[in-house]
Amino acid sequence: MKHVIIGTAGHIDHGKTTLIRAITGRNTDRLKEEQERGISIELGFTYFDLPSGQRAGIIDVPGHEKFIKNMLAGVIGIDIVILVVAADESIMPQTLEHLHILDLLGIKKGFIVLTKADLVDDEWIDMVEEEVKEEVVGTFLENSPIIRASSTTKMGIDKIINLIDKYTTELKDRDVDDMPRLPVDRVFSISGFGTVVTGTLLSGKFKIGDEVQVFPGNKKARIRTLQVHDKDADIAYGGQRVAANLAGLKKEDVDRGDTIAPVDSMSDSMMLDVKLKLLKSIDRYIDNRTRLRLYIGTKEVLCRIVLLDREEIGPGEEAYAQLRLEEEVVAKRGDKFIIRFYSPMFTIGGGEVLEPNPKKKKRFDDKAIKELEIKEMGSSADIIENIIEEKSKEFPTTKEIAVFTAMLEENVKNEVNKLIEENKLISFSLTKDLHIIHINYFNKIKDEILETLNKFHIKYPLRAGMQKEEIRNRFLKNAKPRVADAFIELLIQNEYLEQKMENICIKGFEIKLNENQLKIKEDILNSLNKSPYQPPRREDLDSIIGAKKDEIEEVFVSLVNNEDIIKLSEEVYLSKNAYDIALEKLKEYLVDNGSISIGDYRDLLNTNRKVALALLEYFDQVKITKRDKDIRVLNQ
Q1: Can you give the pTM of this predicted structure?
Q2: What is residue 269's predicted lDDT score, i.e. its pLDDT?
Q3: How far is CA 523 from the centre of its chain?
Q4: What local confidence, expressed as pLDDT, does residue 28 receive?
Q5: Which member of 212, 346, 404, 573 has the lowest number of beta carbons within 10 Å of its beta carbon?
Q6: In CATH, which of 2.40.50.140, 3.40.190.10, 2.40.30.10, 3.30.70.330 is domain 182-262?
Q7: What are the start-end ranges of the E strands in 191-298?
Q8: Does 1.10.10.10 match the CATH number of domain 515-634?
Q9: Torsion angle of the four alpha carbons 611, 614, 618, 624, in this order, in degrees rounded to the nearest 10
């Protein structure tokens, strides 16, 4: 079954509410003040069943200029518009503003109803119809049907219902697998039940028990009950008018303008990148950094417009802009919005969100403009690729990309997999998370690391490579250490790099000693092996070996890096041969005896306490042994 929302629009007192009552048999004026004054102040909602069996929701928006904010909150999610024009008055200022707003919001289907047709003669209503046709030229209502109606005599009511039914069958189904979003247009509290929010569910579906979050912000709740068109429901689908009873929220925790969505599915933002279009009918230009009122979803927020490719924008013109907001909002790429002057308040234009979570952009930046062009014209895959390229240095996960794009993570994964197959993205896993980077970023960082290591190997030919930590800090400082390590491991797996202990070198790099250095190496190892468990201190080697101090240091460091010498502590170094024998003797002893003390190990190796302790602490560190008070046991 399709889920359709019908909306009325038009000037105050042109008969919108009365027309809805004639169509549905229900009154949408719900405030006492509305009943007394005969005008709609707040949004009115009801529903009716179509001849085809479909059930349509219908929204009655206020016609008075003072309540345009309420009107804007109501038109979000409308599928079909009825533009109401009183036959005895014709087109009025608020009719035109409503028409412009609906056109800017991208609504595609609608028709015109000339109400109060029983109050005028044929000649007059013919003239009104011609006026209306002229005014809607260039809008989505150009060439749309015009029905003459009377809510009093019921003239034209059946035609209206049948036309709504026809349009309903022509509408595409909403994507119920998309992420659910419910912009809140009303909040109230019911004694014994708690907080209830209402709105038009834009997409996806909510069911009882779903965990949700109030955006902007981090208030979380659970859907206790749902109503669709005043009837209890287990599931609400995109395109339906929904009332959700939220457990865990107070009435003051949520306001009109907030959005209800799955937990952690969206990201609050103080900026929006947009494509902006001004109405042809306005009579002034908008300068860069003009303060405006933004209406997006059901929210009103003040902002300043930063024009990215010009100093001003005029009537009927389009431009890329960044809206810098005075309050946080949440949005999705493709969301429509309206802008009005700060004061005096009247509608000047609207547009489409291209990037809901942008970074601050410089003006007249060709690269930034090109990226916005991609976001405007590109497919979902293009958008995802572009965002990943922007954010690669942060090594985003598929979940984070889903938040940036306000897409379901499953849909993001599907697009990412295709882009990986096309060799546009690189991925690597870390625990449960899949991290994604663009191939351009991968090649850039890989080339920078290789170039730096090549220079390092030339400058320090006896060193095994750069410390891994230095590579992390220099090239991967925006990534968490474990993510940076996983990226380095990716370069190792792809045979660009090698790791030797904590050192990273170019794949295939080998330390090559000259004749003098080979002699120093031999002397160092001989000195250590002479009394393998009574080794000389590092500083004593300078006097034992007849060579320059800096030459000895360079060779000694290379032997440690290559693991020819094992550094047990700052004061104790053993040759690799002595270390291997000490380890073998330890394991044999523990197999036979179960545990070993420092004194036992000292006697086993015929060494001193300092060397025995350094060995045992090193074995603890590398998880070969485990300390239990004063003894060691094998670490199972």
Answers
A1: 0.73
A2: 95
A3: 61
A4: 53
A5: 346
A6: 2.40.30.10
A7: 194-200, 205-207, 211-215, 219-228, 231-233, 235-237, 241-247, 259-262, 269-278, 286-287, 291-296
A8: yes
A9: 60
